[in-house]
Amino acid sequence: MTSPVTGQETSTALSRELSDFLIELSIGLHKNAIYPPGHPLLEGATTGLARRLETLLAKRASLSLGVARQQLIIEGVATDENNPVLRDLAARLHRHHLGAVKFLQGVTGDEVADALATVAVDIGRRGKPLGLEGPDVLQKWEHVRLFPLTFEQLQLLDEDPDEAKGDSMRGDKSRAAQLWIGLARAAVAANADDDDDKTESTDPVLVAKAIDEHKKDAAYDQVVVGYLLQIAQELKGKGGKDAAALQKRISRLVATLQPDTLSRLLKMGGDARQRKQFVLDATQGMAVDAVVELVQAAADTSGQNVSHSLVRMLSKLAVHADEGAPLGRAAADGALRDSVHKMISNWTLDDPNPDGYRRALEKMAMATPEFQTSDDVYPCEPERLLAMGIEIEMLGDPVWRALAALSAADNVKPLLDLLEHAPEGWMRDTLWRYTASPDVLQRQLQQNPIDVDAVERLVTRMGIAAIPPLLDALEVADERQAASFIDLIVAMGRDASPVVAGHLEGSRATQQRLMLSIISKIGEPPEGFSFSTYAQHAESAVRREAYRALIRIPAERDDAIAAALGDPDERIVRLALGAAMANCPPRAARVLMDRADDTTLSEELRALGIRAASSFKAPEILAFLLARTTSKRRFLRRHALADATPEMLAALSGLAMHWTTDAGAQDVLAVAAKSSDKEIRDAAGRRGGSA
Predict the structure, then answer these.
(1) 177 and which of 7, 154, 366, 670 could share a cystine (Cβ 3.0–4.6 Å)?
(2) Are 234 and 282 in contact (CB under 8 A)?
(3) Are 182 and 99 in contact (CB under 8 A)?
(4) Are residues 142 and 253 in the same domain?
């Protein structure tokens, strides 16, 4: 993953033994899902997994893994969302509403086999997910524990219950909620036997209490910290009410935890690199009032000393970030996080602050935030005020207010013009970060009419961060605007595909159709993604776009054409016919022969199907075409032609285009060329090539 502070690649990869265990667990579940009980392959899968568990549990009392929608968290590390095997394993457990799985020392092969068989049963065959079952099912093994994830608890992230009822639970919000509930479940999992009611609560105070009261358990700590890392990743770069609610809960959790507990979590098995990465990621995603708590805990864990003055200075920055003027909060927030990053990255001295510097820090820490009132009025218009600030490189509260006013205006072009012509440097970059944001873009997309030029300029600066607002706007955009938005996303290239694919699930059919079109135009579907899934969609418009994409992929073309020709929607059949007309695949030709008498298809499509099938060189095709062009009733004449229906004319045209070297076809074409019917003569005269 990439550090949010340095922008450099970091490594918190799974150990080889844990990675192999998860893959073997996934394979074991898959085999239990497809093979009947008692099959020889099941015994081998179970024995191998039990042996690997025995090896892992020889080094630890238990092994826990948390479950997110597309990832697993084990030993404090989240699996790669793009790994198809582990993604499938996480999805299988998630569909069963399971929030955590725990293996204890002493687990037997019989327990592993029974647990695999239980989890492998599809939800449709069980009647309800495992997570909704009682303890008699989830806790029936002595050394294997399953902990439920209650989806009704997703509503808990909403601060306003009335507003929550009217919300449709967008995809990113659902993921954030699931991560928080997964953390809560993992945190209270160990105490579920003592107090079952605790497992129903996601209150940060109760979760913190459960973590405080838990005895030291490396596996337990790794799962909890793994969820914290995932939540920090989810909050990075996001704003709005959803992120604020989740950030508030995490902040409250950290503030409630005992210092010893925070230190315990930060130790994470003694891995200093992983501990540093956790602090850096967490401080980027949590509210500022929790940052100081983390810094102090990190210092204790790393054997470093943070001077009292510096702690007060950081605390003061947190006050400015929370209670200062609205436009100054962002600067204080960023300064606090940057300071934490620099300090943690460069801890070398116990206390480098001399007495004079310490006193200066204390004096600064006692100052109150300036510009507290929001009613200050500046007589200078915002555009001129911002231009002056850029000229003198002074980023004070008046400049922030001017920037906020210009970015909130219906017409943001004056602001964009100012920034595009501003001198390169730190100030221009800072102003662009504020302006080229999802919130500003969202406001522009809600204008009527939409200023496409302003949108394009913002998107160019934002990159893939602009994709979610653009996808939301596609649903209500007119044809011209939708085409422009699609082109903007496609221009971002291969990095846009995973983002678009991540928004497909749960979207409306109209949006899904457009998203499939975007992924197809980019030309590089993300790993693990398949258009075939959407070729089975209930909505014909979605199926049509999926087939259109599959036909463009050489390896998928033949099967896609054949499947599309059998679709009940005539528009999909017409799409497939266009692709099959020049070079009809064998399987598609046979489908077309079967549908030649299908009265559910229009006469025009049946005729086009006959013409498309004629390009496939096989004896049965020739016989099919001859039968369509000659009449069985006119038995006294050797090659009496059938009536000139659209289907007959299409078959005759197919003989003329593709079968002119066959003797039987030549006889029929010769008779047709002498027909008194002009349509028959024209069809027989369409020479397209030789066999």
Answers:
(1) 154
(2) no
(3) yes
(4) no
Please spell the DSSP secondary structure of 544-595, one letter per residue: HHHHHHHHHSTTTHHHHHHHHHT-S-HHHHHHHHHHHTTS--HHHHHHHHHH
For every residue of 656-691, DSSP letters joined together read HHH-TTSHHHHHHHHHHHT-S-HHHHHHHT------
Q: Domain range for residue 113?
A: 1-149
Q: Compute the residue count for the chain.
A: 691
Extract the tokens encoding 469.
């607002």
Query: Which position has the token pair 């394979």?
Result: 27
DSSP β-bridge partners for residue 630: 641
- The structure tokens 């659902």 sit at 174
Contacts of 367-376 with CB under 8 Å at 24 or more apart are 367/316, 369/319, 369/320, 369/323, 369/324, 369/325, 369/328, 370/324, 370/325, 370/328, 370/397, 371/324, 371/325, 371/328, 371/397, 372/323, 372/324, 372/325, 373/325, 374/325, 374/326, 376/401
Last residue of a domain, one of 115, 149, 183: 149
**Residue 401, H or E segment:** helix 397-407
Say yes or no: 122 and 41 in one domain.
yes
Residue 294 near residue 345, CB atoms below 8 Å? no
> How much of the chain is helix, strand and coil, in % rounded to 5?
65, 5, 30
Number of domains in the chain: 3
Residue from 568, 645, 574, 664 nearest 612 by CA: 574
Contact 89/22 with Cβ under 8 angstroms? yes
Which of 322, 346, 367 is the C-terminal boundary of a domain?
A: 367
Spatial contact of 286 and 294, defined as CB atoms under 8 Å apart: yes
Q: Is 62 helix (H, G, I), strand (E, B) or coil?
A: strand
**Domain identity same for 337 and 274:** no
- Per residue in 347-404, pLDDT (tens digit) is 554 555 555 555 555 555 455 444 444 444 555 688 888 888 888 887 778 888 889 8
Kindly report the pTM of this predicted structure.
0.43
Which residues does 494 contact at the CB level (< 8 Å), separation at least 6? Answer: 522, 524
Residues 187 and 234 in one domain: yes
- Report if residue 331 sits inside a domain: yes
Residue 77 bridge partners (DSSP): 74
- Residue 417 pLDDT > 60: yes
CB 232 within 8 A of CB 284: yes
132 and 210 share a domain? no
Cis peptide before 161 (omega within 30 of 0): no
How far is residue 679's CA from residue 688's CA, in Å, rounded to a whole number? 17
CB 640 within 8 A of CB 634: yes
Name 63's bridge partners. Answer: 103
- The answer as to whether 493 is a domain residue is no
The Cα 353–Cα 148 span in angstroms is: 50
Task: For residue range 151-184, list pLDDT tens digits in order.
Answer: 333 333 333 434 334 433 344 445 666 677 777 7
Higher pLDDT, 230 or 144: 144
Span 645-678, pLDDT tens digits: 888 888 888 888 888 888 888 888 888 888 888 8
CB-CB contact of 492 with 478 (8 Å): no
Report the Cα 321 to chain-centroid distance in Å. 31
Q: Sorting pLDDT into bands at 50, 70 and 90, what band is 458?
A: very high
- How far apart CA 25 and CA 106 sit, in angstroms, is 18
Q: Is residue 509 part of a domain?
A: no
Q: Which residues does 171 contact at the CB level (< 8 Å), separation at least 6?
A: 502, 503, 505, 506, 507
Whether residues 235 and 348 share a domain: the answer is: no
Neighbours of 374 (CB within 10 A): 9
Q: Tell me, yes or no, whether 245 lies in a domain.
A: yes
